[in-house]
Write the structure tokens for this entry.
Amino acid sequence: MGRKEDNIKRATVVMHLLPQIRNLCIAAHIDHGKTTLSDNLIAGAGMMSEELAGKSRVLDFDDQESARGITINAASASMVHSVEGTDYLINLIDTPGHVDFGGDVTRAMRAVDGCFILACAVEGPMPQTETVVRQALKEKVKPVLFINKVDRLINELQITPEDMMERFKITITKINQLIRQFAPEDKKKEWQVSVADGTVAFGSAYHNWGITVPYMKKSKISFTDIFSYCHNEDQKTLSKKAPVHEVLLDMAVNKLPGPVEAQKYRIPNIWTGDLEGELGQAMLSCDPKAELAMMITKIWMDPHAGEVAVGRIYSGTINHGESVWAIGGAKAERVQQVNMMVGADRIPVPCVVAGNIAAITGIRSAAAGVTISNNKDMVPFEPIRHYSEPVVTVAVEPKSMKDLPKFIDALRSLAKADASLQVSTNQETGEALLAGMGELHLEITTYRIEEEQGIKVNVSEPIVVYRESVSSNNIGHPFEGKSPNRHNRFYVEVEKLSPEVITALQEGVFGDGPVRNKDAKEIGNRFSEYGMDKDMMRKIYAINSTNVLINDTKGIQALHETRELIIEAFNSVCKGGPLAEEPTMGLLVRLVDAKLHEDAIHRGPAQTIPAVRNAIKGAIIRARPSILEPMQKLFVSVPNAWLGGVTREVTQRRGIIEDMPADGEVTTVIGTVPVGESFGFSNDIRAASQGRAIWNTENSGFEELPQHLYDDVIGDIRTRKGLKAERPTEENYSD
């Protein structure tokens, strides 16, 4: 029996001992050492050679991950770790650090209860560090901190012990500020990380050592000793005295919650069913004998087994050969195989119980975010919402029409596996629009179509996805939308939501989709906490992304009969506004009056939907429509000799430089750049710095497009979409 199989054999015993389970992930900014650390944790569990740790990249098993040297997919490994003679099962997920693959981080957070936040000792917390901390806290995942690459501070920067401690203090303070800002109210103090209580570790994943205050006491190693070992180039001895896997996994066992503890406060955050009912109580207590409740967080393609669904089990047990429902699917499906994972290796087991992470095959209806249960009528888990929306699109079509059916199937599989990828297909031409988080995200997606699916494709140049909004309002001057038969009229006012409300909508504070009457009061109360009129917001009909629909009418006969049609019309405008059929953003749409035909046959879908749609679009035009462009936060570290070339590259792309902090011979250029101006930046910045610049980006929301670019941008979009060249006016929606 191999190392991995032997480990899993032990894991199948421990997984039934719920207090001895820890589900955790590693999250960080790109290149801060996540995958190297994962290798060392896996090696420490005896599942690979210590000599290969940091080189094998066990959890980066995708071809593109190996080729590019970055993590693209969240990957998991189950391992057994002993603390004072007691075995613990650690279900570990390594997550991507690149901003384009942040959706995988968000989904991974749903599966875990604790998180190692890595921060580079040299760079400190970076933009993606903040993002992953926010993602963890939103899912009520408890963080602990590992400050990595400490050896670089000592050997490369040659700093004093005092300077090192000051850097540590700054990093810890920044992480705690984020925890105070984003943690649930009852966890803000409890989850603060601290050197003294052992929730902060220091070390070098590359050299396989780590230390915490509790481990210092245990091993008799001091910071003076660490300085000495690093200066003397004897980190190998340090790794024997304080192996990073032992230090961090001890910290995970002692400082991070198990599922029995965590599910008590996590379940109310991710499930809207009856917590007092049998299933609710079973999930709160993590009962393995109850009804199955599992959420799929990852789909990946196995060349032999096909689609593999990975997810967290919150109650019940998933068994080999049993029939289960993917909630929303048409029929029950048989579980062909149940597995525990170690990177790319799936190791079959008879079952996996509540509180653990499992990989299953055979469930064709499974997709990232789908709930699996024995009961087809189970209330599903809340959808997983990522902070960022797709901002770049490419058109893709098969080079050969004979590949069209296969191409369409491939797109369906990709959409199931990656919820942050938006796919729309023209079934007649085979052309597909892929909307993703950035150039790299779409580049990897098209690679998978060509290399993994064997379909050669034509790919367009990247297309920026803008947003439509308003810069004013038409309050007091509602726009009238008439039905084709002229028997029904709807009057709509539109205004812009505040940035605070838009952020809350993006974070899923108010939910998404149609709002049931019984929930309207509670949601209205939530909106009032953001300064909005409570009474008005209690009349809410629907939420679509960052747009809100309110029924602000009084005493309209039969209006309730058209409710679903009104919402459908609202949703259609959210997908494409009047200026250029781009998605709308941050709109409060209020239906303020209506005149309906007394006979229901004259106010059906063909009459109501066009009338409401025209009313909303006309109201947007009357409220002075605006175009918002996606922006990226940019961080470029470059030796001072090449600083001028870098700043020119940024400013030539309509970038705004916000700060340029210097650290010795290196300066970091911090600024914002429109996504539409960022294509090709990688090659140009390399040329401008002769390959010496190091950079990264994060999505930073949307800003209004400069007025002088309106006509060109809107004209280009309308031409590309085959729309009339002339921008619509109110008259276009009043007939």
